[in-house]
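INTERNAL TRANSFER SHEET
From: sequence group
To: structure group
Subject: GDSL esterase/lipase

Please process the attached sequence and return the structure record in the designated field. Keep the field labels unchanged so the import script can parse them.
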Amino acid sequence: MAALGATAVAIAMLLLATITNVALATTATTAKGPVIYIFGDSMSDVGNNNYLLLSIAKCDYPWYGIDYEGGYPTGRFTNGRTIGDIMAAKFGVPPPPAFLSLYMTDDEVLGGVNFASGGAGLLNETGIYFVEYLSFDNQISYFEQTKNAMISKIGKKAAEEVVNGAIFQIGLGSNDYVNNFLRPFMADGIVYTHDEFVAYLMDTIAQQLTRLYHLGARKVWFTGLAPLGCIPSQRVLSETGECLEEVNGYAVRFNAAAKDLLAGLNAKLPGARMSLADCYSVVMELIEHPQKYGFTTSHTSCCDVDTSVGGLCLPTASVCEDRKEFVFWDAYHTSDAANQVIAAHLYADMVSAGDAQEPQGNATAAPKVVRSPPRPLPRAPASRPAVRGSNTTSTPRAAPASRPAVRGSNTTSAPRAAPAARPRDAVGSPLAAPPPRA
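Return from structure group:
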């Protein structure tokens, strides 16, 4: 009798587990809106860097978040919402939570996740002086870990269906210029001509997106570079305060190469639908015609920190009276009001491509959602904190020789053979170093 009772209990537990997995899989595949995965830098970070103890690319202090719900800093590098937050609202889903705030046992791993990290670049050496950050390669590794957690919960087939149907939003590349190629003390700006640097970036992106494809990504929206020469931290390098046309030219060249690369990957990878989201045009429109969108100022930051070290809105900064009138919040990042305009433009492109529907009702306010409590923020480091959600430890790299060492584990961004060093004036006079951008 005891044996029969134990068998009955085991069968009941097995049935309960099966029913639970089926319910979770159904929830993940029949949600109101799409599952969204976000990869990026400080324009998309929603708090991942808060969990990196040694990172100096953080904004967990006033005045950041002053216009976000609650008025407190959340790790977003703006006064309110990121572009990803606003687009999620248009899709009718909550903003994807920061990966490092989750436990892999949380049911939230079945929905969208934000892997973006301030200071990150496409290249592993980009952002080296921010000490700790999640490069694009790191972010892909953590997506792989997230998918494995999904498989544990709902099975491989259901997890594959969720990922295949998800939207992958990728916004990286700005730091590879502002905090790498344009910095006189970084090796890439010395070793490579711009054409060589673009080729290096495209080779890296091809490997990274192919890796994501093999992990199940199909619908990928890669956000092109904005006119980097017009952001406040770059304009102050001009004698006249105007945009740096050489830097804008770099962005245009990058975007054209990225568009061609995505078309090639679509032709090569069955079922891939990879598109370039045009961020350059809409941001340039905001800069050149701010009044058309209700802004008064597009050449300087709300916090008046264009020439400050770091270019961020520190608690000591003087914040502008009406933040809705400024396109730029700090020396590098757009304001909540500008992000609304940019998000509307990018979402319209998705609608035209058939990856989204016209938003219904109030699409600027994020839906309310009850989440599991986030992982507590770290307080004090031990010998060296491990990157949360991983079995690896994010360690500092040695100083670069001809090329910096590749950062992170399971990377795909391998060093290229370095061409002979060239004088900086081979592609133009050297640019003065602006304050670092997160």
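Handover comment: Residues 102 and 373 are 8 Å apart (CA to CA). Residues 8-30, 361-370, 380-436 have pLDDT under 50 and may be disordered.
Transfer complete.
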